[in-house]
Design brief:
The protein is mostly helical and 223 residues long. It folds into 2 domains: 106 residues, no CATH class; 115 residues, Serine Threonine Protein Phosphatase 5, Tetratricopeptide repeat (Alpha Horseshoe), CATH 1.25.40. Helices cover 67% and strands 0% of the residues. It contains 14 helices and no strands. Helix 3 crosses helix 5, helix 10 packs antiparallel against helix 11 and helix 13 runs antiparallel to helix 14.
Amino acid sequence: MTYEEALARLRAQADPEYRNFHKKLLKNEAIEVIGVRTPVLRRLAKEWRGDWETALSFPNEYYEIGFLKCALVAALPYEEFVRQADGAVSLLDNWATCDSFKARCIAAHREEFLPVLKRYLADEREFVRRYALVTLLNFYIDEPYLPLLFDCIAACGDGPYYVVTAAAWLTAEILARYYGEGKRFLAQTRLPVAAHNRAIRKAIESYRLTAAQKEELRAMKRK
């Protein structure tokens, strides 16, 4: 498969209306978008798994190419995934690719992967940090990891927008699964006001919390 062949496949699947819609959602005018929907990209990633090394050598000119590269890396066995992870996260420049980059092999290697996540959390790049938080959300919301999660969330401080929103999302997911522990964390006011209130707002949107719990959280909003 050549780069030109890959682009031809993508352009054959393009939807101009979706392209315009998705480009607005990405909120990054510098990103070039062909307009291929996510389910189609996932199908192509499955088809191209055998040629992943070639795909990783393609230029990073389009959103879809970056998405496919991350999807292909995510499908690798753990040892190879770790070797390719730094290169993949360096491609992240938007929330959609970041939030879709989910390597299921991490689930069986959580302790091994933690040092990598801690390194990403300390990175200056906004979407590298967001990737770390979303990965914690996907694989680490478990009672033994709660102290670590709370420390990671608190360390985000007044970070960039997509870091703060990921921290709020992670907090909301903890509240949905471990309400008491999450509520105690909020009561410690370790989060900046904006992130604290955003986490509460996100949690209140969840159908997994009771009406009484939502009222308790509303009362915990800060000014």
